[in-house]
Amino acid sequence: MVQSAVLGFPRMGVNRDLKKATEAYWGGKISQKDLLAEGKRLRQEHWKIQKQSGIDIIPSNDFSFYDQVLDHIQLFGAIPEKYSKYKLDPIDEFFAMGRGLQKPQTPEAAAVDVPALEMVKWFDSNYHYVKPTLQDGQEFKLAANPKPVVEFLEAKEAGIITRPVLVGPVSFLALGKADRGQNVVPISLLHKLLPVYEELLAKLKEAGAETVQIDEPCLVFDLPPKVKNAFKPAYEKLASLGSKIPQVVVATYFGDIVHNLDCLTPMSSLYGIHIDVVRHPEQLETVMGALGPQQVLSVGIVDGRNIWKTNFKRAIETVVKAIQKLGRDRVIVASSSSLLHTPHTLESEKKLDSEVRDWFSFAVEKTKELAIIAKAVTQGPASVREELDANAKSMESRATSKRTNDPKVKERQSKITEDMFNRRSPFPTRIAQQQELLHLPMFPTTTIGSFPQTKEIRVQRNKLTKGEITEKEYEQFIEKEIQEVVKIQDELELDVYVHGEPERNDMVQYFGERLTGYEFTTHAWVQSYGSRCVRPPIIVGDISRPAPMTVKESKYAASISKKPMKGMLTGPITCLRWSYPRDDIHQEVQAQQLALALRDEVVDLEAAGVYVIQVDEPALREGLPLRQGLERENYLSWAVKSFRLSVSGVKDSTQIHSHFCYSEFQDFFQAIAALDADVLSIENSKSDAKLLKVFVDEAYPRHIGPGVYDIHSPRIPSEEEIKDRIQEMLQYLSPDQLWIDPDCGLKTRQWKETKAALINMVNAAKFYRQKYAKSS
Ligand SMILES: Nc1nc2c(c(=O)[nH]1)N[C@@H](CNc1ccc(C(=O)N[C@@H](CCC(=O)N[C@@H](CCC(=O)N[C@@H](CCC(=O)O)C(=O)O)C(=O)O)C(=O)O)cc1)CN2
Ligand SMILES: [Zn+2]
Hints:
Elements: E1 3-5, H1 17-26, H2 32-53, E2 59-60, H3 68-75, H4 81-84, H5 90-99, E3 101-103, E4 112-114, E5 119-121, E6 128-130, E7 133-134, H6 147-157, E8 163-167, H7 169-174, E9 177-178, H8 190-207, E10 211-215, H9 225-228, H10 231-239, E11 247-251, E12 272-276, H11 283-290, E13 296-302, H12 312-326, E14 331-335, H13 354-357, H14 363-379, H15 385-400, H16 407-414, H17 427-438, H18 455-466, H19 471-492, E15 497-498, H20 509-512, E16 516-519, E17 526-529, E18 532-534, E19 538-544, H21 551-559, E20 565-570, H22 572-577, H23 587-607, E21 612-616, H24 630-647, E22 655-660, H25 669-674, E23 679-682, H26 690-697, E24 703-706, H27 719-730, H28 751-775
Parallel strand pairs: 1-14, 2-8, 7-9, 8-10, 10-11, 11-12, 12-13, 13-14, 15-20, 20-21, 21-22, 22-23, 23-24
Antiparallel strand pairs: 3-4, 5-6, 16-19, 17-18
Helix pairs in contact: 1-2, 6-8, 12-14, 18-19, 23-24, 27-28
């Protein structure tokens, strides 16, 4: 029979229970015991859901209190000494690595002050993982009570035999890096890491695990030869343990593996391989052709990255193709990736229009889809006739619905001309005019847009949503917040102000709620990092802007501040990538529709007297196709064009800023430069000087503010630390082009630490301003 499998289930729970529990624990409101109990409750609940849906292969160890890669850092004892030296409780050490820890000395314990480990995007998703940070001479050691074994046994006790999920040894190292000042090449540590896997796998077998899912998603990249060559010996070594370890399914996702197929085949010792055929259906044939005679293929056919209902007819056709070649017992139908990237359940959405609701499927619904597909191909379509008919009807309804198509938008797109992609004059002309208007000092200081989203702000917004206060009252509250942040920026003596974004729930969702063509949800949260979640709006039809979206707040802010006020927008690519996009038209078309809507907003802001406008594109890098080649070039071309289309409607004297976080700029520099933004602010504080080096090598001609401190952690950077950062930057960038700013917006921080950090930042900027004033 054809089995159904889930590669991973969302962890947050139906009401973001995990977020609430971890934040309560961090805030000292619940005990460690309570936190651990809540984790256990959530795991049980999620296993039960999958069991009830009829899933045959249910994952364990997909749960994490922060991030699954961080779990493995601790599992393998790859904990940098700067954390381990404090001898914290395992769970506190774990959170210290995830989010940093700053604690005053107490009679019982020494003071603690460590920054978080670097956190980066998980492939091309909006999920973030913690980067393994390795030392020269790194050793590994399996943790006592290994989490995968504990959680396997926990499920077993509840009557469910699960398939534990592990991050594979090659991907674990390939996704890691050498610590600052260390020279180790991570993959060279594989021979030291493998014995720990062997020990772990043997323990899982002993506990009763029949199969494990070992994730090796790095197989979808173009791999350096050292990494590529590491696969075969590693997996052959594991296979040589025979029945001492569980059967191994190697899982890949978010791309195709045809170019790396020789890493896994023919390797008859491997029980099975999982591939993502939602993203790359064409790899199916090739992978099937390369399998050994017994090997199992897990066909990832239900999308783990989007919320559209699976087209049963097409999915079944694909699975049947696999069955014809391999036979029923060698085919598994699976989610394309972990379902982590989808919201928990559609059941919670009470406000969705019934027409579009019928087009969606969230994690719980996807588990049911998998069971139906497996049944259809095992027992025949008649066994699920009703479900198949209902699905065909949904597909038909979406394909023919009037609400997806807006001829006015299409007409405007057809009339776009070349000059709409270009500013009027080149940068030197523009910056001279901007300087005349803005009179900024050397080393201008600014922030990235948001200030702390306090409890009070969220409560007021919640009241508005529930109708407990009027629009007018909410508006007055927001104006008061803006007054407050303007006053604080006066006190801090920043140079370019922001209004603080208090009116925005999220930088993408806020725009989604104001654009035609979007649907938005009330409970559809997905984890972004740690306890932080987002509620991606859903693009269902052609996009347009019925009315200005940000002008009222920015205009008000500009009117009450004595220094330049920066308007704040989210760029077209970020709006696209952090939404659930349509899958019925190309993303390029969706990005262009967003760009036209934003272009109108930019022009309206300028007309309202806002002469510095930042258009954030933090997701531009993340959208880059994972492999080199034509697909990447195409993406960059349309992505850059949509940014330029959105900002090029303004005068030379209006200063366009853009902001990037989570970017590795090495393979991306040309695109950044091609945006032609007057000022860039980029996340930098955790990624070492290698990032800056690119800007020197490529002689970046415009203004730039590499972040001087990490905002993801509550830790306050000292003035000295920030000065050192600036000193480092001055080795690469000229003092005339350098801006001083944090890594990203401050919405997740508290006011106390925000003010303290910004005071240090402004002082550091003043120090260099003086130094260079004297020397010039
Ligand atoms: N979409 C997106 N992706 C991004 C980022 C981003 O800003 N947006 N930034 C980067 C880092 N990722 C981040 C992701 C989330 C958050 C974040 O702060 N999320 C908030 C939720 C933000 C939000 O939408 N808040 C809503 C709803 C808030 C809420 O929880 N309301 C309560 C009720 C109010 C209360 O009593 O507190 C409820 O619904 O239960 C609002 O402010 O209106 C959180 O998890 O806490 C920050 C960074 C990369 N990706
Ligand atoms: Zn950012």
